[in-house]
Amino acid sequence: MALNAKIPEGPLKDKWQNYLAKTRIVNPANRKKLDVIVVGGGLSGGGAAASLAELGYNVKVFFFQDSARRSHSVAAQGGVNAAKNYKNDGDNVYRMFYDTIKGGDFRSREANVYRMAEVSANLIDHMVAQGVPFGREYGGYLSNRSFGGVLVSRTFYARGQTGQQLLLATYQAMMKQIKVGKLTQYNRHEILDIVIVDGKARGIIARNLNTGEIERHSAHALVFGTGGFGKIFYLSTLAMNSNGSANWRAHKKGAYFANPSWTQIHPTALPQSGEHQSKLTLMSESLRNDGRIWVPKNKDENRAPGDIPNDERDYYLERRYPAFGNLVPRDVASRAAKERIDAGHGVGPLKNAVYLDFKTAIEKLGEDTIKERYGNLFTMYEKITAINAYKEPMKISPAAHFSMGGLWVDYELQTTIPGLFAVGEANFADHGANRLGANSLLQASVDGNFILPNTISNYLADDIKTGKISTDTPEFEEAEKAVKDQVTKLLAIKGTMPVDQIHRRLGKIMFKEVAMSRNEKGMIWAIEEIKKLRKEFWENAAVPGNENGPNSELEKAGRLADYLEIAELMTVDALDRKESCGAHFREDYQTEDGEAMRDDENYMYSSAWEWQNGESWKLHKEPLEFTEVKPTVRSYK
Amino acid sequence: MKLTLKIWRQESAKTKGKLVTYKLSDLSSDTSFLEMLDVLNEELASKGEPAVEFDHDCREGICGQCSLVINGKAHGPEEHYTTCQTHLRSFSDGDTITIEPFRANSFPVIRDLKVDRGSMDRIIQAGGYISSFTGMAPEANTIPIHHDIAESAFDSAACIGCGACIATCKNSSAALFVSAKIGHLAKLPQGQIERTERALWMINAHDEEGFGNCSNTGACAMVCPQEVQLLDIARMNFEYNRAKCIS
Amino acid sequence: MAVKKGLFKTSVGRKNLMAITGLFIIFFLVIHLIGNLILIIPNSFFPIEFWGGVENVHDMYNAYSHFLVSFWPVTIVAWVLYAAMIIHVVDALLITIQNRKSRGEKYQVTDNSTSTWYSRNMGVLGTILGVFIVLHMAQFWLKYKVLGTEHDLYELVLATFKVWWFVLIYEIGIIAMCFHLIHGIESAHRSLGIYPKKVMSIIKYIALCFSLVMAILYAIIPIILYLK
User: Fold this and answer.
1) CB-closest option in B45, B89, B110 to A542
2) Residue C35 scores a pLDDT above 60
3) Residue to test with chain C: of B78, B96, B170, most C Cβ within 10 A
4) Where in chain A is the domain with CATH 1.20.58.100?
């Protein structure tokens, strides 16, 4: 199937308005005849569920947490971007659009990015009306802070818990719709397959995680707000239960997966401290405003950081990037840290971290100022590590964070399966090869609240006479059987290797070869290793218990089975793209001084991969056309 | 480190539960409490025994899903921590640790340490929102809010809905949880229109879900990971009395 | 949504009722204390030019007691007080029953470091106080006012507090009252919805001081009478 992005006609700045003017909408009286299933209760899925229910559709929302308020949007710290120009610093929609395109290293779709910037202002209005306690100036007006990669202050924030506050507003809007009966929530449900009837996505097969029951649910359209799959690295900043399974099962039913290998590795997470570590907690990027990053010049340094004299320290970011110093973008900072750690200069018990030192800043500004700026982060750091960062430097390390890639969607956010839509991190559209800070909350919220409700009607307009979709059909029968068979198969392995251990090994392979720095030889090795590991999983995974009731090991096994396949596609994608762009850095395609070398001539496209029955994948290219901006080389020297 | 764990095992809400003893050794004090349970579950899995079911997700103290009572204290020995932020360095080598679920009549056990906190969702459904539909909002800066009021509203809004307050309260009252939402919205100008109904409806829902009465012992605020304050409970009572008087 | 429950039937309402009745009882405690303090006025203060002049503490105390039982507005207040006490007790029972039900299965291990023992045990302290009040009323109120078997209340009081174990019972009752008040006063204000931070921190302080002063003054009377 050829890709059709369905970008509306007209100049860039008019496209969305043109689309809205001409798209088909559904009569309010007909909306109650239409069912929509939303998968995911976070900012994108929850926003879509609440907004669609407000419009009058019958909405069912599914998520695996015990409450939608726990979706991982909750963990976003820094803020949300919007082109309000409250600071009178020359911000506007175009500038925001340009910053995002450039931050994504010219690998995102112009029309989508422009639209995101265009509706960003509405989002702030919406969230304020919902009662989000954004930071305020003393005059009572909204406050802004600045974030990496831009020259203006356009980030709105609610202390260090912006994601939580936006999510709670969305959650509350959902709760309101549940009360009025337009929305039904299915908590502790995991989506194990989608059902396609006559070429259209018409339902899902879900497992009730409390009872183990396999359930069928039908709808006229499906919306996936399923988030990212960075947990594939095992150690990541994601929640423990975040997973790629719903997306992957949809992919196997015909949804193309776009740019799967583009994963943002965040430079300032806490390092792994032991073999059993499960999670790398993120420390806000803002710390790099005042902290200096360094490693010892000696390889086997055993002295405490305070005892290492200045001339024996390597402030490698300041050395390599004198213009931006410690404030280079995330991908550059992560890569540079990996380079030093790999060269044997890492610090900490596992030699896997670098120092983030506030000594200079404390000497210059005083401890009180630093406390006022980052007090909550220092407290959080101490809670986890028991180290007082006012006295000695923090130890930080890069960690998998955000999936820029995801399900391929067109301008309407529809995947290649008609009737299946993807919003937020689950889709691929807006961030290109690298996401700017404070853009993920934005994308998730606007996709769910402002874009999808206006585009899904164009699809649903054909269904006003369809009537209820029956779940009593061969298609549902078949999908349910496949799901049950897989559960049985997993429980029948009866091996001895705990699922988490296999996941850790997969994570190690992926982090070594398909993360910050990639090369052909390593990735060919990785594919072989992944295949071996997959074989081992199906032969020797320990999946205890049974399917009747809660069984967290079974849940983990099902997710890992998918990760073991996603991992291969990620590697295939990274191997195929013989250039360096954004988070995708190929050692074999770099400049003489070790910087990324983009190849606009041959790789100015998004890679959308089609599943071919498990044998291989077929690549579809969506060419990227830039009408308003001219791709340039990103340089931070 | 070596630890002896006494863990509450219960098949479902309908069956009786009991404490089962497990022993773990070679633990590092840098391991988090939940990672210790991961280690235990790996040991159980490799022997083919069912895992100890417990709730957890973000593991950075913000989602509110983790919900263990450790040695009789919700979220463990440290004040204002979540379970996932608790590390083994808070314990000593050789300790015996009792792990139980968040208990309350309105938190039925799903299995082992997992409980159903749907009752908290239903309280929010009763009125914990502002009815502003997508697309209705006026320009954000048309509603100026004093810096201190916004900050105070944030203090209440920071509640992560974990339920530690309820698990700790000797009466299983959800007063702190309900008051955090009522306080958050009552402090802001956007929340004024529905203020009266919200207080009545949410407290009504609180009672219908079977939560107990607040005795103001203050234990809830001592375990709250976000340090929501008892003053919010007073604010909730004020809002309720005000609503009763004018409605 | 229909909210049918009356003002005092919800969890907040029931606590309001506790607070209002509790505060009224505290108001009575103050009045009661003032009257009782007559008992320890030293003889050197007499005669006092009051009520047309009283010669000694015996006459003064009996005149005061007579006034209480014969002046009709006091009788009305007394009935309100009995009602407040009964409501306070019945409401406390209802609340406790609900709380037990809400708790469900008990913890195997409990850690009480997060709250004070007296705030958790208001019911126990209240029960001690209840038993004490019954004894107290049986000894004085019943004999003097209801049955009328004793006419010289002062003598009765003096005789009572010459018995050491009676003094002990009183001291126990007063200690229970002290802790009941420390928590009760703060809790009542919070239940009624006093939320400004500064006001509440002052109330907390006042509650402590007031309870201690009340308890000390109440406590010294039986001791002084015993030693007299």
Assistant:
1) B45
2) yes
3) B170
4) 474-599
- Measured CA to CA, the distance from residue A456 to residue A449 in angstroms comes to 12
Considering only the beta carbons, identify the residue of A129, A131, A139 that sits closest to B144: A139
Same structural domain for residues B193 and B98? Answer: no
Instruction: Looking at the structure, tell me whether residues B189 and B105 fall in a common domain.
Output: no
Please give the tally of structural domains in chain B: 2
Question: Chain-wide mean pLDDT for chain A?
Answer: 95
The chains found to touch A (3+ Cβ pairs under 8 angstroms) are: B
Same domain, B66 and B178: no
Shortest Cα distance from B106 to chain C (angstroms)? 7
Confidence of residue A637 (pLDDT cuts 50, 70, 90): confident
Q: Check CB contact under 8 Å for A135 and B38.
A: no
Q: Are residues B238 and B145 in the same domain?
A: yes
| B212 within 8 A of B157, measured Cβ to Cβ | no
Residue of C nearest to B183 (CA): C195
pLDDT tens-digit readout, B11-21: 999 999 999 99
CA distances from B200 to A250, A568, B180 (A): 45, 55, 15
Q: Which of A234, A236, A227, A229 is nearest to A266 (CA)?
A: A236
- pLDDT tens by residue, A211-266: 999 999 999 999 999 999 999 999 999 999 999 999 999 999 999 999 999 999 99
Cα-based angle A289, A294, A298 (whole degrees, multiple of 5): 175
Mean pLDDT of C107-116: 95
Taking only residues 350 to 389 of chain A, the set having a beta carbon closer than 8 angstroms to any beta carbon of chain B reads 380, 383-386
Q: Is A34 left (phi over 0), alpha (psi -120 to 50) or beta?
A: beta
| All residues at 6 or more sequence positions from C219 whose CB lies less than 8 Å from its CB, including other chains | C170, C171, C174, C175
- Within A525-604, strands assigned E span 541-542
Q: What's the rounded Cα separation, in Å, for the pair A488 and A485?
A: 5
Residue ranges covered by each domain of chain C:
11-97+118-227
Residues B74 and B182 in one domain: no
- CATH 1.20.58.100 corresponds to the domain A474-599: yes
Q: Is the dihedral of CA B57, B63, B64, B70 positive or negative?
A: positive
Q: Is A417 helix (H, G, I), strand (E, B) or coil?
A: coil
- Res. C222: pLDDT tops 90: yes
Residues B130, B99, single domain; the answer is no
Task: Check whether C4 has a pLDDT greater than 70.
Answer: no
pLDDT band (50, 70, 90) for residue A328: confident
List the domain range (segments joined by +) for residue B149. Answer: 118-246
* Cβ–Cβ gap B236/C12 under 8 Å: yes
Chain-chain contact of C115 with B222 (C-beta, under 8 angstroms): yes
pLDDT (0 to 100) of residue B64: 97
Closest to A449 in 3D by CA, of B92, C55, B137, B168: B137
Examine the pLDDT at B78 and tell me if it is beyond 60.
Answer: yes
C-alpha torsion angle, residues A300, A301, A302, A304 (rounded to 10):
-160
ipTM of the complex: 0.98
Tallying the residues shown for chain C, one arrives at: 228
- A392 contact B CB<8A: no
Kindly state whether residues B107 and B197 are assigned to the same domain. no
pLDDT (0 to 100) of residue C206: 96
Asked if B244 lies within 8 A of C193 by C-beta distance, the reply is no
The CATH number of A267-400 is 3.90.700.10
Does residue B189 have a cis peptide bond before it, meaning omega lies within 30 degrees of 0?
Answer: no
- Cα–Cα distances in Å, from A559 out to A9, A229, A507, A542, A615? 41, 10, 13, 14, 20
Mean pLDDT of the region B142-159: 96
The two structure tokens encoding residue B188: 């802001």
Q: Residue C1 pLDDT more than 70?
A: no
Whole-number Å distance between alpha carbons of B236 and B214: 11
Residue A330 annotated among the catalytic residues of the structure = yes
Q: Looking at the structure, tell me whether residues B10 and B78 fall in a common domain.
A: yes
